[in-house]
Design goal:
mainly alpha, Growth Hormone, Chain: A, 82% helix, 16 helices, disordered C terminus
Length: 434
């Protein structure tokens, strides 16, 4: 079935439509908010952004998903999920109003970032509650269908929200007042999602009562112990460990490149704030196109090459092409490299997902993917911090470019050494044949 026909099939359910509407509106609002944070950090005329501030901005955007993600389920399984979907938007809207006030009053940056961090912490619980609620509004035979269409639609809504944020910024201006208005609109839109969620019955979305469920404190302790067990397990399984390492390496090197690109378009390629924002948006757009292309070519490529072969090909080609395209420090090269890293990075992620799902024992899979998510976001934040130390004020750094480019090639070589060019399932299959 096509995406449109899949969506039409699941939309026949009234409660699913309400949950789906809650997701779309909230993620649309999140797109506006994320654009406001990035615009505030990099492209506000009143402030001279530094690479250190860029690292703080990325930490605010990503760390709540890394740190809170594994623990959100403990509370999602104890609190009314419908109430989370109603109350969280109100709390988040209030926090966004506070953040808008802080920006309008030219409060210190740390005050704004603290409010933004709280906003995203609330959002982590909200998104987890949405995912946990889905089985309560979709019949069992359509659950896979719903899981296929809802995250994709939510991601599209976030991109549309970011685009709307860009257009609103053109209308409101790039000053602190304009940023504050964006935050207010994001808060209002998120608040409307609470109205949609409130139309569902309080007990509809669970959780079901379980007398044997451990206390929250014990459950949190179990999460920590479980993740340690998952880490020990994956360290002793060669191909999943190598896959996680390749994904983490890409996110670190990609993060260094993105921070460098943001600083270049803010200070090196142009001194005009609006021109820099328009131009860096082009790089992000080509990267997004690359993500889409990767989804098309990776299945085809892995039918001809195993994922264990495709990962080092993607890593090595990313390093070589980034150096060749970006070494002259011309805008066109960075525009193209956005596409290249989008294709190569997403290809690595798709292959890493597949290898982890294929080679990790099912009993450990959830815990390993919790580690996966923490690495995915945490390595980007670490890269931003390292880039903040190495980058000059205008962002032009041959050192950072060489580190990123050579790092990709070295990662490809190390991956080949770790895997030995074979799948962890190969020995098992050989034993079965003999």
């Amino acid at each position: 079935m096509s995406f449109v026909s899949d969506l039409r099939a699941v939309l026949r359910g009234r409660d699913f439509r309400r949950l789906f509407g809650t997701r779309l509106l909230s993620q649309f609002s999140d797109g506006i908010f994320q654009f406001a944070v990035v615009g505030y950090a990099f492209f506000t005329p009143e402030k001279q952004a530094t690479a250190a501030e860029a690292a703080v901005a990325f930490a605010v955007l990503l760390l709540p998903y890394s740190i809170l993600g594994p623990f959100a389920g403990v509370f999602i399984d104890r609190w009314s999920r419908r109430q989370i979907l109603v109350v969280a938007p109100i709390v988040r809207g209030t926090l966004l109003g506070l953040a808008a006030l802080l920006v309008a009053l030219n409060a210190p940056d740390w005050c704004f970032y603290a409010a933004a961090l709280a906003v995203l912490g609330v959002n982590r619980f909200f998104l987890s509650a949405l995912s946990a609620s889905l089985p309560h509004v979709v019949e069992g035979e359509r659950l896979l269908l719903a899981n296929a269409v809802t995250p994709t639609s939510g991601t599209v809504a976030t991109f549309i929200g970011a685009g709307t944020g860009y257009l609103l910024r053109l209308a409101f201006g790039s000053s602190h007042t304009g940023t504050a208005l964006l935050l207010v609109i994001s808060g209002l839109m998120f608040g409307f999602s609470a109205l949609i969620a409130s139309r569902m019955h309080r007990t509809l979305l669970g959780p079901s009562f379980d007398a044997n469920r451990p206390q929250a404190r014990q459950a949190v302790r179990n999460v920590i112990v479980g993740m340690i067990d998952g880490a020990r397990h994956v360290v002793h399984t060669r191909t999943p460990a190598a896959a996680l390492a390749s994904m983490a390496a890409h996110r670190f090197l990609y993060g260094m490149t993105i921070v460098m690109v943001a600083m270049l378009y803010r200070y090196y390629f142009t001194s005009n704030v609006e021109a820099g924002l328009n131009q860096v948006t082009g790089v992000l757009a080509t990267s997004g196109v690359g993500f889409f292309v990767a989804a098309l070519i990776t299945p085809w490529a892995t039918e001809r090459f195993r994922p264990e072969s495709w990962i080092p090909i993607m890593l090595a080609s990313a390093g070589v092409l980034e150096l060749l395209l970006c070494l002259p420090f011309h805008q066109l090269g960075f525009l193209v490299v956005g596409f290249v890293l989008g294709v190569n990075g997403q290809s690595v992620k798709i292959c890493a997902d597949t290898i982890v799902q294929r080679d990790v024992e099912d009993a450990y899979l959830g815990r390993v993917f919790s580690i996966y998510d923490m690495l995915f976001n945490g390595m980007f934040v670490l890269a931003a911090a390292v880039a903040a130390i190495l980058l000059p004020p205008n962002g032009k750094s041959y050192l950072v470019l060489v580190i990123a480019s050579v790092g990709y090639v070295v990662s490809a070589l190390l991956y080949r050494l770790l895997t030995g060019g074979t799948s962890s399932r190969a020995p098992q299959e050989a034993q079965e044949v003999t």
